[in-house]
């Protein structure tokens, strides 16, 4: 049973109690414990009520005034005001048509929820499929980058070795040349 049905059941029980009191000779005031102003019915909280539609087996499509409640710490608080908007209960073919309409609406609501869930799943799957080629491309690019970094390291090492060999060779050549010049002057 969902939250809407629970609220409607509470209101229905309250309505049945009031109807029972009314049939025992009670005044109409018991039925209408809200006050009316130019904008509509006020509940016990002195707030404007809203019209809600019941979809129970006893009162399909029947409208009633209900307290909207007020927001408190972690939810809503209500005075549980209830008064029928539609005085007569549905009956005859209208009653059956309303029950059928209620069942159709519930089925459509369930179908819509299933479609939304399918849509979410398909969207998620599509995003995964779109990510997959992009991830592959990213992996390939990363591998190429790593290979290029290794190649740069190898080339840097070779360059350093060649530079050291060149410096050593130049120094050695200068030393040998100096020795030869010094020996040539002595002779």
Automatic annotation (TrEMBL):
UniProt keyword terms in alphabetical order: Coiled coil, Membrane, Metal-binding, Transmembrane, Transmembrane helix, Zinc, Zinc-finger
Any one GO molecular function term: zinc ion binding
Matches recorded under PROSITE patterns: ZF_GRF
A Pfam family per the record: Zn_ribbon_GRF
Coiled coil stretches, renumbered: 98-158
InterPro entries the UniProt entry points to: DUF7900, Znf_GRF
Domain named GRF-type: residues: 43-88
Transmembrane segments: 165-184
Classification via PANTHER family: ZINC ION-BINDING PROTEIN
Protein name per UniProt: GRF-type domain-containing protein
């Amino acid at each position: 049973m969902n939250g809407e049905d629970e609220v409607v059941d509470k209101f229905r029980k309250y309505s049945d109690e009031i109807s029972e009191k009314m049939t025992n000779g009670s005044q109409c005031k018991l039925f209408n414990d809200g006050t009316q102003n130019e904008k509509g019915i006020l509940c016990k909280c002195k707030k404007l009520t809203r019209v809600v539609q019941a979809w129970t087996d006893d009162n399909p499509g029947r409208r009633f005034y209900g307290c909207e409640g007020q927001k408190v710490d972690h939810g809503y608080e209500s005075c549980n005001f209830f008064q029928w908007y539609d005085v007569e209960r549905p009956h005859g073919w209208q009653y059956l048509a309303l029950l059928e309409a209620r069942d159709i609406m519930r089925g459509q609501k369930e179908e819509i929820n299933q479609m939304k869930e399918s849509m979410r799943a398909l969207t998620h799957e599509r995003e995964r499929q779109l990510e997959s080629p992009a991830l592959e491309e990213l992996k390939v690019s990363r591998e190429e980058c790593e290979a290029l970094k290794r190649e740069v390291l190898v080339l840097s090492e070779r360059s350093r070795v060649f530079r050291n060999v060149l410096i050593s060779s130049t120094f050695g050549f200068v030393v040998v040349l100096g020795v030869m010049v010094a020996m040539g002057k002595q002779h």
